Amino acid sequence: MEDRFPELGSRLLVLYDGRCGLCNRSVRWFLRHDARDRLRFIPSESPRVAALLARHGFTSPDLPNGPATILAVRNPGESPGKSDEQILIRSAAILAMLRELPGPWPAIAALLRLIPRPLRDLGYRFIARIRYSIWGRYDTCPLPTPAERARFL
Q1: Which residues contact 89 (CB under 8 A, 6 or more apart)?
Q2: Neighbours of 103 (CB within 10 A)
Q3: Does residue 64 have a cis peptide bond before it, meaning omega lies within 30 degrees of 0?
Q4: Which of 97, 58, 55, 90 minimizes the C-alpha distance to 74?
Q5: CA 17 vs CA 48, 83, 112: distances in Å
Q6: How many Cβ atoms sit within 10 Å of the Cβ of residue 114?
Q7: Which of 82, 127, 128, 136 is deepest in the core (most CB within 10 A)?
Q8: Cβ of 110: how many Cβ atoms within 10 Å?
Q9: What is the pTM of this model?
Q10: 3-class SS string, 14-79
């Protein structure tokens, strides 16, 4: 399956759990704050990202439901041998997303980066573990509004 994303340009591709209530609320928050149009979103359950996920070690137990974390990908689907594809997970993905927003969010990301990654990821994993019980889970991935559709792949 083809996993190139020419419509991204230099934007950051964000893979999220499309059925998670917290994840969907977070995506909506990023959509409201992404005034420079630097982010594109795709649910990790999408068949369009299967090859990208497999290339980074998200295999059978993680698919078809996708990884149990948020991923941010720079330069996804580059040609083999020329790839500078970079995948960021957990807190590193969130910080990369914040850096793409207009101020004050890049400064906040820089401050959060001062916290050692193991501690940031510990907090991330705690929230991830309780997210369904607090924010719920959708039976299917909610559809974006007509105004948001261009920001989803």
Answers
A1: 67, 69, 70, 71
A2: 7
A3: yes
A4: 97
A5: 14, 25, 23
A6: 7
A7: 128
A8: 12
A9: 0.83
A10: EEECCCEHHHHHHHHHHHHHCCCCCEEEEECCCHHHHHHHHHCCCCCCCCCCCCCCCEEEECCCCC
Q: Which class for 91: exposed (0-12), middle (13-18), buried (19 or more C-beta within 10 A)? A: buried
Q: What's the one-letter identity of residue 99?
A: R
On whether the CB atoms of residues 99 and 14 are closer than 8 A, the answer is: no
φ, ψ (nearest 5 deg) of residue 69: -155, 165
Query: Pseudo-torsion of CA 19, 22, 23, 25, nearest 10°?
Result: 110
Q: Do 14 and 70 contact (CB within 8 A), yes or no?
A: yes
CA distance 113 to 8: 26
Pick from 20, 119, 118, 13: which is nearest to 68 by CA? 20
